[in-house]
Structures are given as C-alpha cells and as structure tokens.
Amino acid sequence: MNKLLFALCAAFIVLCVAPMDGEAKIVEEERSLYQNVYIVKEVGLTCMRFRKKSHNDLSQSCIFDERPKELVFDYYKLAMGATFFLDDPKDMLVIGLGGGVLVNRYKEVYPNANIVSVEIDDVVADMAKKYFGYTDDGEQYETHVRDGRVFVKRELRKDRRYDFILLDAFNSDYIPEHMMTKEYLEEVKGLLKPGGIIMANTFSSSALFHHESETYHQVFGDLYQIHFEDEKTNRVIVVSNDKLPEIKELLKKANHYKPLLSEYGVDTLRVFDAISDEVNWDTDAKILTDQYSPANLLK
Amino acid sequence: MRIRLLSGEPINSITQSMNTLVLICAFIMGFSIMTVELLGGKILSPYFGGSVYVWGSIITVFMLALSIGYLLGGKLSLKEPNTRKYGVIFIAASLTTLPLDIWHSELSDWVFMQIEDPRYGSLVSSVILFLIPTTIMGMVAPYSVRLLVANAESSGQTAGFLYFVSTLGSALGTIMTSFYLVLWFELDSILYGVTIVLAIVGIIAMLFPKPLPKAEKAELINE
C-alpha cells in the first residue's frame, strides 16, 4: 500500500515537474544589428524573443508546435478582427513582420491579396522563415528589410497605395519612438487607398496609452479599439482615412468568417464584442510628434 | 575644487574671475555639444530610421568636426588671445546652429529625396546639419586652455582641469537631454535654447574686462 502511495506521489511529482523541466530551451540565438534574437521552445510553443528572460509577455512571436495554425496571443486574435473591416483587399502592408505569424494567416484568408512585409532586422526575417513557416515565395509577396518609417516615406514617393496596413513594429521595449508620432501616422495615412484601413497593435497598460490614443484621434478622428475585457495589456486600434463602418455593420462579416477563423482559435463573436468606440483616454493628453516623442520615458 | 592664482604679484582678481568665466563657458560648451549630438538622432530618425548607422553617421561627423575645431581653435589662440575673441567663437557657434534650428526638417527631407541608402543619407545630412557648428564649438577647448595657461610647467595640469570641466559638462548635457529635456520640451525648443545660451555666453565673454598684462606670469594651481 505504501509502495503504491509512493509510486503515485512520485508519478505526481514527475508529472508536475516535467513540463517545468523542459521549459525555455533556447534552440538558436543570434546577435543582430538591433538586438539578440532568441528562438525558445517551451511547453509546446516555439517563440521568438529579444530578451533571454523567461516571461511570456516578452515574446515577439509564438506558435504552437503541434497546431501551428492556432494563434497563441490574444493580440493575434484581435488583429484577425481586421477581416470585419475589409472587402477583398488587393494590397496589404505589414510594418513589423516579426515571426510572420499574422502575415501567414492573412495570406490564407486573402489568397488573392498582394502582401508587402517590412522588417528592420534581417535576422528576425530569417528566423520567421526558418521557424515560423513564413515564406514570400510568389510574385504576390514581398519582404523588405528596412526601417518601417523610411519604407513608408519611400512608398509615398512611389505612389503605392494599400487597402490595409498593419502597424506592428516593436523593439524589445515597445514601438520605436519615431513610429508613434503624428507625422508618421500622417505618412501612413497617405499610403491608404480611399476607405482603407489601418490597424495598430499597441498596449493599453501605461501612461503612454493616453498620449498614443490622442495622437491617433488627432490624425484620424474616430477610432475603434479592440481589447478583451479580461486581458488588460493588448489592444488593437482601427482607423481609416474615411468614415469607419458602424460597429453593428461589422457583425455580418464576423459571422461570415466565424468558421474559417475558428481554425485559428479565434472566436470572431468574442472579437466582435471586444470592439469599442468609447473614448476612454484623456483627450487633453499631449500628442506625440517628431518634436515631442519621449515615448519610452512616458511609459 | 577651487582655483587660485599664485604669483609674486598681488593676486590679479580680473585674471582669477576670467579663469572662472572660461571654465563656466567651457562647461556650457561641453553641455551644448552633447545636447545637439543627442538631438541629432531625433532629427534624423524620421528620414533615415533609428538604426546604429544613423548614430554612426552622427558620431562620425561630430568627431570629425571637433577634431577640425581643435586644430583651428589652437591656431586662433596663437595671435593675441583674449576673452573678446573667445566670446566671438561662442557667437559664431550660436549663429551657425541657427540654420540647423530652422531648416533641419527641410534639409533632411531634401537629402532623403536625393539619396536612397539611409547610411549615406544620414551621413550627408549630418555633414550638412552639424559639421560647421560643431567645428566652431570644438574651437573653444584649445582656446580655453590658452586663456587659462599661465606658464609651461602647469600647462598640463591646466589643460587637464579644463578637459575635466568641459567633459563633465558633456556628461551632464547627455544625461539631462536624454532623460529630461526631451520629456519637458519640444525638440526645436531645446535647439533654440542652445542657440540662445551660446549667444548669451558669447556676449558675456565679449564684454568681460581685459586682464592686466602681468596676468601672463600668474600661476594657476588647483587646490
């Protein structure tokens, strides 16, 4: 009897400890011009990190090893809400490729779209291809290794325009300061086709929230925020160079994409419920400009 | 640290206060150089990004400009050095930062249009924006040494103390700008602030009374 109890205890301990034992194994690390890039495997996930510390929220990109299509982060799921706003987009631009997890899903949802991805760090772009299944094979797809703001300025000169732009450029802290300013947002706005949509991945958990929200507000007017009630950090901002559709008009597409996006672990109705037009920031907050953008100090 | 002059003569109070003036001026110049250098990153990042090569361009141009400035400042100090000329250097530095203050966006934009590669774009922009004002700023250090040095024996110590003060100014300028000034003020306000401060310092130095000729024999010691 004692032996049985002992065995049970041992089994229990092994079961509890085993996953922790296998936690955070660095499978590749490379120093790039901008940061150290780590590929880490832990509890069934493959993640890209810019810091060694083992905190999930510091991961730039993650996928499940067993189910690579299923989205890991809430912000990925929020970003799939873009589908509610888009009608068969022809040209899409992603600033901040990272692991390419979102681009891979957008490619599947919109197989006819041209997708241009911009990533400042060539090591990150290489890792995206090596570990996250990202490819830019085919004429439809381009990857540019360049600073996002510089790329946007060049595109303006070339008169290229997009139906959808995802702003997802992050360094190890937050969004780079020169990519949060009014001038930058105006440049990005200039790249939109009429009625085009911009979606920005941001955090809602710092003092910067007010400054950032008000900057979008000043440049675009009305904006929608998508964030899950029970998850405080991530929020996605949706803006347009035209009038945004009424929230209730979005329900049709949320229903339409429900079966497809459920493959990615996205409950489109939950995302729909997370859309808000509430002005929940301090509209007196000083906006961020090229003159004043101490973003990381305000954080 | 206190500076006192020793010589056979009664202590020349004008010389002593001139030394204090020169040290304060050198401190302010050290501060200003680093303020402008740090803001350089903010000026260029909208056009060329925030990459390491943008900083490489800025630092290269600042180092180049300072080296030329040291050369010219040393040369200038050979002929009748006085605080009036010293003040003129500050005023010239102030005036040459004005185009930077007024047109930095337009100039960077123009270079952006001409040069596709952000490395050479940021380098050329840095040359246009910073080379001339920083060269003139660099002239202050050797000229300060000349004004302070009383004799050959103590010249090394005098120069060392001058570098200590001006580099301390640079350190403070770096931390104040990057930690606080960018949080309190807009970019252009800080740039204009530097221009105005340099002009005021220049005017004060120009108006400073001439030291007595005997001052040449005074000895500067640190105590």
Automatic annotation (TrEMBL), chain A:
<dbReference type="Pfam" id="PF01564">
    <property type="entry name" value="Spermine_synth"/>
</dbReference>
<keyword id="KW-0808">Transferase</keyword>
<feature type="active site" description="Proton acceptor">
    <location>
        <position position="168"/>
    </location>
</feature>
<protein>
    <recommendedName>
        <fullName>PABS domain-containing protein</fullName>
    </recommendedName>
</protein>
<feature type="domain" description="PABS">
    <location>
        <begin position="1"/>
        <end position="252"/>
    </location>
</feature>
<dbReference type="InterPro" id="IPR030374">
    <property type="entry name" value="PABS"/>
</dbReference>
<dbReference type="InterPro" id="IPR029063">
    <property type="entry name" value="SAM-dependent_MTases_sf"/>
</dbReference>
<keyword id="KW-0620">Polyamine biosynthesis</keyword>
<comment type="similarity">
    <text>Belongs to the spermidine/spermine synthase family.</text>
</comment>
